[in-house]
């Protein structure tokens, strides 16, 4: 059963320093009116691996430019849904329509492991994301601009081995952004990072999404990350979308605020309901 919930909670707490800076940045950038993203329409989508029916009969429409988070218990099929959307798996039944005339380079995936080439310098690793366009005259300039976008303009000549985990993920993000994708799918991209680096990467993801207008699909185990970033949260359970939650909380959102905590608590409660088990989210 699909249940629609809507959250808009009070906005009465004082802003912290980081939020004030973010608010100013968003204010400077202005409202996010233009979307380059593609819409997705999923009809009656099912996926089985042998006898294991992981997803069944999913119907879903994602408007262009929306930031959607997908949460659910381990093994419920979050990554399978993302991989189907990204064309990395084939559906057993059903269809996924992505915008009009989407090209392969319009859809990019960022994974938990940065998957950088150890023998190539940072700039070359970013150029890899250009695919066939790597031979174009402006390839290097585009890669440099993507590196600047993720705050690593000064690391272009470094080897991946000398970067921190957070910096490697930034390079992976630059590689995903360099082709100016219209759908960006994130498969637990921040899962291996420490808490502070994770929050700073969350802000970066939100900023590039705001600035570039792609459609974002984020698979995460971390419900607080989902409520901090997403316009909409899908909870996967028993092969389907058990909850489809609109997150109507203004951006930038205040980490640790009562409204985010209330929404997070309510989603966690839904996830745990009926299982009697709190160990495996
Ligand atoms: N290539 C595959 N071959 C066989 N089974 C698979 C394959 N990929 C996924 N599965 C199975 O599909 C189910 C869902 O896996 P999936 O990785 O989508 O779950 P998930 O919700 O992303 O899990 P987690 O949160 O632990 O990453 C699991 O039972 C998994 O074993």
Automatic annotation (TrEMBL):
SUPFAM superfamilies: P-loop containing nucleoside triphosphate hydrolases. It comes from the Bacteria. PANTHER family: ALIPHATIC SULFONATES IMPORT ATP-BINDING PROTEIN SSUB (PTHR42788:SF17), TAURINE IMPORT ATP-BINDING PROTEIN-RELATED (PTHR42788). GO terms for molecular function: ATP binding; ATP hydrolysis activity. One of its GO terms (biological process) is alkanesulfonate transmembrane transport. This is ATP-binding cassette domain-containing protein. Involved in beta-(1-->2)glucan export. Transmembrane domains (TMD) form a pore in the inner membrane and the ATP-binding domain (NBD) is responsible for energy generation. Keywords: ATP-binding, Cell inner membrane, Cell membrane, Membrane, Nucleotide-binding, Translocase, Transport. PROSITE patterns: ABC_TRANSPORTER_1 (PS00211), ABC_TRANSPORTER_2 (PS50893). Residues 40-263 form the ABC transporter domain. Belongs to the ABC transporter superfamily.
């Amino acid at each position: 059963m699909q249940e629609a919930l809507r959250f808009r909670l009070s906005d009465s707490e004082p802003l912290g320093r980081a939020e004030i800076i973010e608010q100013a940045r968003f204010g400077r950038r202005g409202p996010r009116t233009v979307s380059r993203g593609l819409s997705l329409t999923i009809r009656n989508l099912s996926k089985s691996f042998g006898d294991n029916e992981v997803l069944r009969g999913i119907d879903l429409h994602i408007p262009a430019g929306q930031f959607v988070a997908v949460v659910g218990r381990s093994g419920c099929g979050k990554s399978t849904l993302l991989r189907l959307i990204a064309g990395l798996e084939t559906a057993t039944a059903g269809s996924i329509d992505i915008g009009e005339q989407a090209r392969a380079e319009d859809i990019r995936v960022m994974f938990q492991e940065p998957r950088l080439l150890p023998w190539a310098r940072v700039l070359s690793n970013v150029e890899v994301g250009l695919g066939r366009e790597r031979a174009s005259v402006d390839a290097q300039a585009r890669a440099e601009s993507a590196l600047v976008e993720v705050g690593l303009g000064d690391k272009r000549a470094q080897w991946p081995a000398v970067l921190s985990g957070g910096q490697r993920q930034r390079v992976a993000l630059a590689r995903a952004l360099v082709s100016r994708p219209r759908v960006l799918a994130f498969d637990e991209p921040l899962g291996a990072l420490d808490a502070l680096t994770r929050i700073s990467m969350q802000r970066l993801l939100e900023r590039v999404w705001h600035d570039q207008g792609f459609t974002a699909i984020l698979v995460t185990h971390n419900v607080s990350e989902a409520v901090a970033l997403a316009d909409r949260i899908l909870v996967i359970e028993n092969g389907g979308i058990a909850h489809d939650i609109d997150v109507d909380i203004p951006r930038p959102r205040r980490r640790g605020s009562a409204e985010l905590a209330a929404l997070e608590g309510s989603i966690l409660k839904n996830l745990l309901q009926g299982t009697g088990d709190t160990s495996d989210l």
